[in-house]
TrEMBL record:
Superkingdom in the source lineage: Bacteria
Cofactor(s), names only, from the UniProt record: FMN; Mg(2+)
MF terms (GO), sorted A to Z: FMN binding; metal ion binding; phosphopantothenate--cysteine ligase activity; phosphopantothenoylcysteine decarboxylase activity
Cofactor binding note: Binds 1 FMN per subunit.
The name this protein goes by in its record: Coenzyme A biosynthesis bifunctional protein CoaBC
Taxonomic lineage of the native organism: Bacteria, Bacillati, Actinomycetota, Actinomycetes, Micrococcales
Region Phosphopantothenoylcysteine decarboxylase, annotated ranges: 1-187
Residues covered by the DNA/pantothenate metabolism flavoprotein C-terminal domain: 183-402
Amino acid sequence: MRIVLGVGGGIAAYKVASLLRLFTEAGHHVTVIPTEASTRFVGTATWEALSGNPVSNSVFDDVHQVNHVRLGHEADLVVVAPATADLLAKAATGQAGDLLTNTLLMAHGPVLFAPAMHTEMWQHAATRANVETLRGRGAAVLEPATGRLTGADSGPGRLPEPQVIFDAAMALVQGQTDFQLPLAGRTVTISAGGTREPLDPVRFLGNRSSGKQGVALAVAARNAGATVRLLAAHMEVPPPAGVEVVSVETALQLREAALAAASDSDVVIMSAAVADFRPAVVSDTKIKKRDDSADPVITLVRNPDILHELVEVRNAAGDEARQRLIVGFAAETGDSHGDVLAYAEAKLQRKGCDLLVVNHVGSDKVFGQDTNSVVILARSGSEPQEASGTKAEVSEAIINRIGFELNSVSPRA
């Protein structure tokens, strides 16, 4: 397939080198047309080396080949990434001031724009009108991802990941148009890590959770276009850029944060390892060894069932709240009374959540590891879905399933 890859003048231009690599490794012939501004971020030598083809942004180069007409005519697909606010405006108004905008006017095949700009630019009425104009003419315009932008700001306007753009481009060529980011415009709250229940000022009851799976879910949700809120208990990995972080320590703190966050969330994913019990009494001073060698007795009390409470609050609310998808995680071990899935099925019915992600845990399984293997159970009774691989790959499978559920399931009760 002959692809024209237009590169706009934004800081995200460096990520397009990975997109070009995806196209060429898939066997496609790619001609890169950078705007003049984009060459201040990535030079033409990079594009020529990666594409194996000469690169120009001028209508006056190789005039005898009439490139400003030929490239658009011959292209099976035109992809513009990053599509800056300036490029979207020029394309919408039919300007033809350089080789890329001429090619866009001459394109006979499908055209895909992958926007990237600051949030205020993306949300400006002029940009929104330009996007609607382009879509109305048959061009595909992806929703930008939500995440860290240039400087300290975060929000919608981040260039979608190269793999997302590649998948959308391939779907477009095949006639599919429903490839928008699955969680675009959604707010997703994710809990991650392990809670810690204090015994005294220096000791606590904890668990082996590293937070890796929760962080991977936050990255996958962010890349799927969602605004992500991470309720972070103890984690051995840093939170990802481009998400809101709410720090918690105990199960009670997580309960308070989760109930508050759920009120404006489309999806709540409870992937944190929450302590089932906490000490009935927390000592104000360090518990010391007694001279009589007597063993201390620590009385435990149950922590609230946060997942079940989230479901109850949702079901008791109005129709808008009932659209909220609630996803639980179950770290299970089998025993003589039943296997992992039997316990998980019972937990799904008991908790009442919409999806339950189940993994078989042990001293050398799941906790702290970089890989995972899960089964996704649905309250609707659909067939269990398996996913395995790196925690990033498992997270993408979970997020894709969530996107499917959001777009296909009626209000929950």
